[in-house]
Amino acid sequence: MPITLTTKTSKRITVKDVPFASGGEGAVHEITASADYSGHCVKLYSQQFRDGARETKIQFMASNPPPEIKTHLYIICWPLEAVYRNGQFAGFVMPLAYADSLQLYEFCVPRFSKRVPLVWQQTYDRSSSKGVESRFKLCVNIASAISAIHGAGGPGLNAYVLVDLKPQNILVTGDGRVSLIDMDSIQIATALGGVFPAQVATLEYVPAEGNYLNLGKDLIPETWDRFSLAVVLYEVLFGVHPYAASFQGQYQNSNSIAESISNGLFVFGAKRSYVFSKATLHDNFGRIPASLQNLFVRAFDGGPVDTRPNASEWGGTFYGELTNGPTKPGAITRPTQAFQFTAPPPNTPAAKQASAQSLAKPPVRSGRGLVVAICIIFVLILILKACSQGAKSVSMAVGNLLGASNAERVQRCWLSNAAADQTDVNVRVDCDTRDCAQDPLTKAGSLPNNTPVLLYSRRKSASGGRFTWVQIKIEQTGQTVWVASSKLRCE
Length: 491
Fold this sequence. Notes:
alpha+beta, Phosphorylase Kinase, domain 1, Transferase(Phosphotransferase), domain 1, five-stranded antiparallel beta sheet
C-alpha cells in the first residue's frame, strides 16, 4: 500500500511501500506522486533513527546544499527537504542516482562479477588502452564530484567532510557518470561553529590519524577524505588496495589493511623494503604516468597530511594525462595515450595465483624451519615408497597428503545473497566460538554481494546451529571474517 508523506511546507508526496534499496539506517523508496519531485526519491529512516538530532541535520543540509549537486558528470544525492509521516519526522527527499548504475566497488576488484554487463567489462578492461582511458575518465568524474563538496566550504562557510568515502557509496553508469550516495552521514562544520558529526567510517579507507581521532566527538579534517579518495582511485586503476600485501621483518605481523595503514606500509612507499609478497596487480603502478605515481606517493607516504593531493588536483592531473593539454577537470573527449596494464586473464591458474599471492606470509626464522625440512623429506620418502607399489598407491598417498593439508588450500569464492531485496551479505568479525551467531564478543557487519573472497578453512556451528560458519579472507583488503556457508558461491 502506498505511503503518504508531507514536507515541512505541506507538500504531499506518495511513495511505494516496498523500497528499491536498503541500508543500515533505513530504506529508499520510489516516488509515485509528487508535483515537485519528479526524478527524486525518498529515504525513510528506521524507527530508531528518527530522532531530533537527525531531523535538525537534514533540515540544515536542505538549506545549505553545495552550489552544484547535479551536472552532466555527476549527481550528489543531497537531502533537499525533510519529510514527515503522521506529523513525525521520517526521512528526506533526494535526487535519484543515474539509472542503470552499479556500485563503484564492481570496478575496484581484480575482475568484474557476472552482474556487470559485458559491454561495460569491455569498456573498462584494464588490459586494453581503451579500458585504461575509460578508467582515467571515471577517476576525473569521481574527483569532480568530491571536489564540488569540498569546494563548497571555506573560511566563514560551512565545511563538508564525507568521512566514510568508499566505493560502496559511489554509483557508476556504463559511460562513467557517478552518483554520490549516503550523503546524510557526512560531517558538517557550520559557519557558526557548530558540528554535525559523522558516526561511521570504514577502516580500510581511514588514514593513520584515525587512530587518535574520535568519530562523533573530534572534528575530522578534510585531509581525511583526501586519503580515502586516493585509496578509491588506486583501487579503480589496479583492482587492489594500496596497502594489500604481506610483510616481513618488524612488520611481519601486520595482518590487516588497517594495521598496514597505521604502520605506513604503502607498497611503493618508504617502507617498501618490508614487502614480502604482493599481488601482481600492483605491478601496473609502474605503467601509469609519473605525475599520477607522485600523487599516490604524496597521498600515502608524503609526510604532513595537508600535502596530500586534494580532489581538484587529482581531477586536473588525470585530465591532463588524458588530453595532454590544460589540466582542468571536465568531460573528456580527446583520446588518451596508449596506457595499457597487464594482468592475468580471469579464470586461469595465473589469475588464481595472483589472487592468492597477497596472502603469503614471510617465513618465520626459527627452529620450525628444521621441522619443515624434515617433513618434506618424510613426504618424499612416502611418495617414493608409493611409487614402488604402483600408480594406484601413488594416487592414494597423494590423496592422503592433500587431505592432511586441506585446511591450507585456498579456494576463490564470491559472497552471494539470493534474497531479492538484499544487496549485502552479513558477516562476523572476531568469532571465537563454533557458532559465530552465539558469540557475545563477535562484531556483526555486512559486505556487498559479489565481493571476491578466499576460502581457506571451515568451522562447523554448535549443536543446533542453523549454518556452517566459514572463515574467509576478503580478497581486496586481506581482512579475515566469518560468513554462513550458504552465502558463498565458489569456483
